[in-house]
Amino acid sequence: MKKSSKKSIISYFLVSPYLLHLILFISFPVIFSVVLTFHKWNILSEMQYVGFDNYIRLFQDRLFWKALVNTMTFLIIHIPLQLVIALLLAYFLDQKILFKGFFRATFFLPVVISGVVVTMVWQQLYMVDSGLINKLLDGEWPSDATAWESVPKKAIREAARRLLDEHDSTLAELGAKTTVGVINF
Fold first, then answer.
1. Could you give the CA distance from residue 87 to residue 109 in angstroms, rounded to a whole number?
2. What pLDDT score does 53 carry?
3. d(CA 153, CA 159)
4. What pLDDT shows up at residue 50?
5. How far apart are CA 84 and CA 91, in angstroms?
6. Which three-class secondary structure state does DSSP give residue 40?
7. Distances (CA, A) of 105 to 25, 84, 176
8. CA-to-CA distance for 72 and 88, rounded, in angstroms?
9. Rounded to an integer, what distance in angstroms lies between the CA atom of residue 127 and that of residue 119?
């Protein structure tokens, strides 16, 4: 056996786990999801082809359009704001300031802290009876202990806040982008 063909076999062998993962866990689910959009199926019954009826029903649904507008509005505000804040923080953290290392570590900390810990902290802050935020509001508005997730007017703020407690969250991304910015300055 030639040396180049032996290298080729070894190369395919080494790449095969990734390719298997790609096919089984990425390509197949994506393709199957697209196929499902053209069918009516509830897993228990047989698949029934409906063509573009699901899309027609989707585009006629007012709730879909409202959700799309909310998502786009949030992204149009969120992404540029996050980048601008990260670049400004990186610029200031690159200057000669007191406790520079402390501030750099503080901004990078959410990147390395477990998402579970961050989630638990936010849950404690927003608890209805004993959360710090409701305790602070208690002095201002005595009867305003709020279950933050259940009030429609506060729901968008709650959704934005929840981005802070996800592992790949705004706060973690801000810290990572700030760190990359500091390295590039």
1. 17
2. 95
3. 11
4. 94
5. 11
6. strand
7. 36, 20, 11
8. 24
9. 12
Q: What pLDDT is recorded for position 131?
A: 74
Backbone angles phi, psi at 49, to 5 degrees: -70, 125
Residues of the chain with pLDDT under 70: 1, 114-115, 128, 134-172, 185
Tell me whether residue 178 is exposed, middle or buried, using C-beta atoms within 10 angstroms of its C-beta: 0 to 12, 13 to 18, 19 or more: buried
Tokens of 109: 């900390």
Task: Extract the tokens encoding 81.
Answer: 């704001």
Secondary structure class of 145 (helix, strand, coil): coil
Q: Quick count: other Cβ atoms within 10 Å of Cβ 105?
A: 12
Which pLDDT belongs to residue 15? 92
pTM: 0.52
Q: Which residues contact 45 (CB under 8 A, 6 or more apart)?
A: none
Q: Fill in the amino acid letter for 174.
A: L
From the number of C-beta atoms within 10 Å of its C-beta (0-12, 13-18, 19+), residue 175 rates as: buried
Structure tokens at 176: 């990572």
- The pair of structure tokens assigned to 47 is 């698949």
Continuous H helices in 61-114: 62-94, 100-112
Please state, in angstroms and rounded to a whole number, the distance separating the CA atoms of residues 127 and 141. Answer: 16
